[in-house]
Specification:
Largest interface: A-B, 66 and 77 residues
Oligomer: heterodimer
Strand order of the largest sheet of chain A: 2-8-7-4-5
Largest sheet of chain B: none
Bound molecules: zinc ion
Number of domains of chain B: 2
Order of helices and strands of chain A: HHHHHHEHEEEEEEE
Strand content of chain B: under 5%
Shape of chain B: elongated
Structural class of chain A: alpha/beta
Largest sheet of chain A: 5 strands, mixed
CATH topology of the largest domain in chain B: Arc Repressor Mutant, subunit A
Structural class of chain B: mainly alpha
Order of helices and strands of chain B: HHHHEHHHH
Helix content of chain B: 55-70%
Strand content of chain A: 15-25%
Radius of gyration of chain A: 21 Å
Number of strands of chain A: 8
Helix content of chain A: 40-55%
Number of helices of chain A: 7
Distance between the termini of chain A: 49 Å
CATH architecture of the largest domain in chain A: Sandwich
Radius of gyration of chain B: 20 Å
CATH topology of the largest domain in chain A: Immunoglobulin-like
Number of domains of chain A: 3
Number of helices of chain B: 8
CATH architecture of the largest domain in chain B: Orthogonal Bundle
Chain lengths: 243, 197
């Protein structure tokens, strides 16, 4: 493999995202032994990709903190809500972009407003990261929170191109998980094997928004090595189209 | 950085077969940059990468000494193939059975290490990246990075959506890599200690 080919066929960028054929990949990797310039370029490209992942993971963790807060809040008595509301605002102010309009959370917010007779809390309406990961929507899905209720509704009406689903595990009991995403017809749309949870007991999954047409989806999370008869954790969400 | 071009590869193989120990040392010097990068890519942790690297080098030397390398000038391909096979057998990397372009974000392995350094690396990496994203004053350029490197969307679709030429698209990626490197190197002595690789 030579440089005109690497340049013309955008080999380096395609390599970084795993889009080369097996043959192209083998030839390019062989080239890396002889070419310090390309080796440096892929190293820094890989570093940058890891940096983007690190940002996304941090943001997913923040989202999980914010959503976990609502689950915690549900267990509080109404007398404690007024104080808790203040905490809620602080959590939101951390800069989490929760574009999901979780219906049950919305009901809780209404309830809270009445109970606390505090000024209404507005959900953040746009990016508020220190330096936003442009185009990335972060949505946390929890097994506990979603049990038996309405599926989480995700409205993709903001200018987002990728969706980061932060799958909250009740407690991290396994080292690896398998995640399956199915549509309403039960067709498997995507599966990730051998996924590692984050230290925050979440599994972050990024999907291009274009991948999710409006409709209902189910996410099943199974611990690797668990007996076949043991049910996995199930989370549902609904993608609403643009208004 | 020394590299392993076809001529020196053929020469090294001949010298190793002839029993010259210095040639083995030279081979390791010439191939370790690429081989370390690849073993990291084929595994899911620094520790696995180091094991795979050591194992590959040992097995490679054994085979070269035994005259098992049939095309000495393609020694790089031989080393790469050895690392890939060993990696697939023993250090299975995350596998995806995606029907379409999807990325999963594993926590960078260092962040799970219990020591403070792991957390610092993860956090610092995120901080540098946020800085680069903030510096990209054209929101479209930020979008290119996220959609291509993170969501692994098809480049043609991204170019169509954003009305970009492929040249502009690749220029954005190239510039971001360069900028990341500069920022990293400015901070490296204080926070990282060494450059990656
Ligand atoms: Zn090159």
């Amino acid at each position: 493999m030579d440089h005109p080919q690497i340049e013309n066929e955008r080999i380096l960028d395609r390599y970084l995202v795993g889009q080369l054929s097996d043959e192209e990949e083998a030839l390019f990797e062989e080239h890396l032994f002889a070419c310090a310039e390309c080796l440096e370029a892929v190293r820094w490209g890989e570093e940058l990709r890891q940096g983007l992942r690190a940002v996304a993971t941090e943001d997913a963790a923040k989202a999980a903190v914010a959503v976990g807060f609502w689950a915690w809040l549900r267990q509080r008595s109404s007398a404690q809500w007024a104080g808790a509301l203040g905490f809620g605002i602080t959590v939101v102010a951390l800069g989490v972009v929760l574009v999901s309009t979780v219906l049950r959370q919305r009901a809780e917010i209404d309830h809270l407003r009445a109970a606390a007779s505090a000024p209404p809390v507005e959900a953040p309406s746009g990016p508020s990261f220190d330096a936003p990961l442009g185009g990335l929507a972060v949505v946390a899905l929890g097994t506990v929170r979603d049990a038996g209720g309405e599926p989480t509704e995700i409205r993709l009406d903001l200018d987002r191109k990728a969706l980061l689903l932060s799958l909250e595990l009740p407690t991290s009991t396994a080292e690896r998980y398998q995640v399956t995403l199915s549509d309403a017809a039960g067709k498997v749309r995507w599966r990730g094997d051998d996924l590692e949870p984050t230290p925050y007991d979440t599994i972050p999954v990024v999907l291009p928004v274009s991948f999710l047409e409006p409709g209902e989806y189910q996410v099943e999370v199974r611990a690797l090595g668990a007996p076949a008869e043991e049910p996995g954790l199930t989370m549902t969400f609904r993608v609403a189209g643009p208004p | 950085m020394t590299t392993l071009d076809p001529e020196s590869a053929a020469d090294l193989v001949a010298r190793i077969v002839a029993g010259e120990t210095a040639a083995e040392t030279e081979l390791i010097e010439r191939c370790q940059g690429a081989l370390r990068f690849l073993t990291r890519r084929y595994t899911r942790s620094e520790a696995d990468a180091e094991d795979l690297y050591q194992e590959t080098v040992m097995l490679a030397l054994e085979k070269i000494r035994g005259g098992e390398v049939r095309e000495p000038e393609r020694l790089a391909g031989f080393l790469r193939g050895l690392a890939k096979n060993l990696g697939t057998q023993r250090y299975r990397r995350r596998s995806f059975s995606a029907e379409t372009s999807v990325a999963v974000l594993p926590e960078p392995p260092d962040a799970r290490r219990p020591d403070a350094l792991g957390g610092l690396l993860h956090h610092e990496r995120a901080r540098l990246t946020r800085q680069i994203l903030a510096e990209l004053t054209v929101p479209r350029d930020r979008e290119v990075l996220v959609r291509y490197y993170l969501a692994e969307e098809d480049s043609t679709r991204i170019c169509d959506d954003l009305e970009l030429t492929p040249e502009h698209f690749h220029r954005v990626l190239h510039r971001a890599r360069q900028r990341y490197r500069r920022l990293y190197e400015e901070r490296a002595p204080r926070t990282f200690g060494s450059v990656p690789g």
